[in-house]
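Please, structure for the following, as tokens.
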Amino acid sequence: MNSQNTLDFLIVDDDPTLAAMLERALKRRQFSCAIAQDAHQALQLIEQFFIAKAIVDLKLGNDSGLQLIRELKIKSPDLQIVMLTGYSSISTAVEAVKSGAINYLCKPADTDEILAAFGQEPISELQEMNYTPLSVDRLEWEHIQKVLQENNGNISATARALGMHRRTLQRKLQKRPVKQ
């Protein structure tokens, strides 16, 4: 494949403003980039170009970034992927790494943090971390995310499993995740 069919980065995010800002920042650092706003576009680009690295958002409209990671790794096993999300949870981080991501970052993450995430060794579930107990609010957020993932994103089924009203769950999910 010639250099015209090679890209340094694929940015997969349904937020066009964020994707364009990230693309500009990477191009200023002399990286070649392409943007996909959904899984379908990302899979088309991976077939057209040799892409070294991908930055994938967790939520892509109706598509799942976790499922996209699996599909990208099937089509391009050497592709390095960092998942970027505004809805972080331990369960999705573990799932992203199991699916093939080398790292997982919470939004907002600047370009330097994203580039540093690609430079790190792959995350190991066995890596020791400094243990800091989570707050009750953060534990609730993590549990809701885990049950939501188990129910394939189905709000009604998740609300039933948690024993709460669907609207209450929707309000909780609209809030930003609690830091620690």
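The beta strands are 6-12, 33-36, 50-57, 59-60, 63-64, 80-85, 103-106. The domain at 136-174 is CATH 1.10.10.60 (Arc Repressor Mutant, subunit A).
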